Structures
1.
Amino acid sequence: MTQLRQEVDPGEVGLDAKALDRLDQHFAHYVDDGRLPGYLVAVARGGRVAHLTTHGLRDVAAGLPVEADTLWRIYSMTKPVTSVAALMLVEEGRLSLDDPVARHLPAFSDPQVYESGSGAGLRTRPAAQPPLIRHLLTHTAGLTFAFYHNHPVDALYREAGLDSAVLPGSDLAGTVDAYARLPLQFEPGTQWNYSVATNVLGRVIEVVSGQPLDVFFAERVLGPLGMTDAGFCVTDEQAPRLSELYGETDAGGIEPIAGLPLRGRPRFLSGSGGMVASAYDVHRFMELLRRRGELDGVRLLAPETVDRMTRNQLPGGADLRAFGSRPAHDEPGNDGVGFGFGVSVVIDPDRTQAPSGLGTFGWSGVATTTFWVDPGRDLTVQFMTQVRPKSSLRLFPDLKRMVHEAVTD
């Protein structure tokens, strides 16, 4: 077990220590007011951690503090890891971005697209083109989530028992087959809708590699990067370091809620949202991307592949707002933000809700975790807590603003 540590004084890397203190005080209020149990925030420049703060509790009832080695359910921050794994297979020639998904998952051989109506009157037609691997990476395949309530296909997901994106009692293969039996919301490649696509991508990785997703991750990504605590479950030794998960109450406080079943290997290996990790693990992953595919002599991806991953891939070069759709965990504003392969990408800093450098990329998780890499400022940031909000806690715009205020060069 390796934990994150501060490596350099903020001033040595062009960061204002007083501004970072203001950031700490701001988020400490969330803990003191009972809106967060505790949190960790880390800011690094040039790969060196210049600010690391832990505050509050990882387990309120037990009075256990957040520490640098606390483990967090990162939920959708799993998606960029799955995307890196898929791109590794692309580089090896075992997968192509332009492969039809059905080449690897025959259940997708006859895709139908929503045409009109709802319920018993819902009508579909054959898709004009099949969903491709690149569509899974960019959430443009026409898939959706059951917990959305803005399209008739969302309701079909609920009727199929996919409320939590997994078919009850099933594994990844069975669940993905259930997705394939449902119509697509739109023609693949024409729109963006945050969806179960990365679970499908995880299943593609299993089929192409011949390994279960957790084994492929451990052997090909997590192990080589030294992400020693990251995975789909926690051991008995790790369990005491795992943060409790909380939900936001109607009164604006928090209460414990059930989270991912992390004790013992899960039956359903979710490439979309199944991982647990420490701040050190997340820092290592950010460093891989900041350094364009290489870390400590280990290269997982070519620089050009990381450049492509972190470049806007949306139809027509549009931003997310153009598609009238928002991630379920409310990324910090979709104006001026595009999407690459598994990560959001800032394409117009003048239009973003929070200060953002051009080309900044990253992603967030539903338990109010986030990371981003700002190549222009050579900056990486992560924020970890464990609260599933009823709406948005609106933490991330403040975090982005206050980090930017701390940059002095």
2.
Amino acid sequence: MGLFRYYRQFEGLTEEEVNRGLRERADEERGRALAKVEPLDLARTTWHELPPAEVVSAITFHARKGLHRYSEGREDALRAALAERHGVDVGRVVIGEGASGLLDRVAHELLTPGDELVLPWPGYPLYPLLARDTGAVAVQVPSLDPQRLLDAVTPRTRMLVLGGPNDPTGELLPSGVLAELLARLPERVVVVVDEALREFVTAEPVDAALRLTDRSDRLLVVRSFSKAWGLAGLRCGYAVGGPSAGPLLRALAPRLGIADLSLAGALAAVRTSGDALASRVRRNDRERRALTSALQELGMLVTPSQAGAVWVRSPDRDGAALHAALERGGVLVQAGTPLGDDRHVRIAARDAPATQRVVRALEAATA
């Protein structure tokens, strides 16, 4: 109502009655505000918090120094820092526009029309597009089982791409099994392991699969600063190849390099954010286990995960119904259909309050 009508209604009332009315109105408005709970977004695989202050400061410093300039050697500095971090020669590291940008360039370098790209499914939706965009054929394998992957290889297979861990399922092919798979594949097949989510892994050393590149030029490991590092807005990633992979790695580098602010932020993260990254990994592992346990207690079927999220199915409803039930409870999750399985949803692990909201939403749906 207008101000005039609002105050007009108090005519003839005592001051105490007016004050009581104002208090009641304020209480009603406060109650409505408290009742309005913002949706909780657990649909993403990116880290939910801001980067450490040192990273933000580095980006801000270089932005103020001059957006009119190209990078001044920071790409070489980042490659050197990553080479030191992983214990490899700097010539085995290339910087790219995120893991997805590097995967796209790998596909265009390796695949020609008629070639086959073997991939696990459900999986990252980009993988089939790598085949489509190069005229190759996507061969989807409904498992990470190494024998089933081998059985899918034909004389036309040129490339095998794996998530390490797999998105969306969170499954991890152990490095020992990956080594055996490499040994049994034909020489012409290049294996690309997408380790965008690798920092979340706790089942084995974070560089266990990357170490296999020390003795194999047919293995390429791709990583990103977008996930556990929390720098999705920078679109920066890197790839590590074998001792003789230099020609392929040079072909993967963006023609005009990487944006200066992306390089500055990623370099600052590698140099200063090791403790912050380790803390995030511990927190994710703790909450991933807590979320898994809570969902299993509710009767949900949860795939063992080494990622930042869990892959969940209800025993008595389809994925769309499970997605809708969580959404009604104010929890947004990733539907499984675009990822290859309409029975599942993917739920990010965050913290105890987030897990409690997931549980409350599911309990309300079955009440």
